[in-house]
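Colleagues,

For the teaching module next term, I've prepared a clean inverse folding example: a structure given as tokens, and then the sequence designed for it. I'd like students to try predicting residues themselves before seeing the answer, so please don't circulate the second half yet.
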């Protein structure tokens, strides 16, 4: 709104100076290597007009990306009922258990394994621990697709969500401990200390993804330097939710959104510095859309 000023020459309209606002984006915001690889592999498969392309579960945890790929012809499923011999089946970035690969092979389906390499490594670790006769313990969300896939490689494994659950474990002669790739490193270390009390033979393999760790470190640092944090990514994305948790832990106003249209003007009214971070499944176009929207508002 213009300001009014009375002078001997009449009334002047003076535009107020626009407040200077800084927008700071986390360096590693957006697609990680594994997600980018999965999306690229899927886009390549969709260029083949001779066969239908299916994905076992959601390729990545980002509704906008999934919608775009499905528009291009991708079919998301968790059933072999409609997949024919010669069709393509993409294994989601979060991975699946070995039974999916086995059934696809029997049906003559072309499998494209887009499992994130870090997740594949966690699967191999779990399988090796069980082969050694160890009680496999996984730190993660038992309902998450990645953890369900890892459990497929170690059928007798136990999943613990937090340190409280680790304190309730009974003693085992031999334990093999690993983590869902998006978990927090400090919590992993705390649970490791608790598991040392449960077994005299504890073998630990840190399977936490480096990109996930770096994103959390950046958000922790950035959220201490800004007034408001906007975390961009799927509401069903575990790693994006973890970023929001890290920011909130620093008592910074934090908003987890999927799309720029969710941003409300009153979130930014008193902010001088605004931080933006994004989960590993968030495309750059979504991040740029958020920056554009913020500039329009302020």
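(Answer key — instructors only)
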């Amino acid at each position: 709104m213009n300001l009014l000023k009375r002078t001997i020459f009449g009334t002047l309209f003076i535009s107020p100076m626009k407040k200077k606002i800084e927008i700071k984006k986390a360096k590693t915001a957006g697609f990680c290597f594994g997600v980018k690889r999965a999306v690229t592999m899927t886009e390549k498969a969709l260029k083949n007009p001779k066969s239908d392309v299916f994905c076992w579960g959601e390729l990545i945890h980002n509704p906008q990306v999934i919608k775009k790929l499905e528009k291009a012809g991708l079919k998301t499923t968790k059933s072999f009922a409609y997949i024919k011999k010669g069709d393509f089946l993409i294994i989601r970035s979060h991975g699946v258990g070995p039974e999916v690969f086995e059934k696809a092979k029997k049906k003559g389906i072309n499998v494209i394994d887009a499992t994130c390499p870090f997740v594949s490594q966690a699967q191999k670790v779990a399988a090796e621990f069980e082969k050694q006769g160890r009680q496999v313990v996984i730190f993660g969300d038992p309902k998450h697709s990645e953890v369900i896939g890892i459990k497929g490689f170690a059928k007798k494994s136990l999943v613990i969500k937090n340190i409280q659950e680790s304190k309730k474990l009974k003693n085992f002669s031999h334990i093999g401990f690993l983590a869902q790739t998006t978990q927090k490193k400090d919590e992993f270390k705390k649970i490791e200390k608790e598991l040392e009390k449960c077994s005299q033979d504890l073998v630990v393999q840190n399977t936490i993804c480096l990109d996930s760790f770096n994103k959390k470190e950046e958000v922790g640092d950035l959220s201490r330097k800004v007034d408001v944090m906007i975390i961009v990514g799927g509401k069903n994305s575990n790693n994006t939710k973890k970023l929001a948790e890290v920011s909130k832990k620093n008592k910074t106003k934090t908003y987890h959104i999927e799309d720029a249209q969710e941003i409300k003007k009153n979130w930014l009214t008193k902010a001088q510095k605004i931080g933006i971070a994004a989960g590993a499944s968030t495309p750059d176009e979504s991040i740029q859309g958020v920056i554009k929207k913020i500039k329009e508002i302020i």
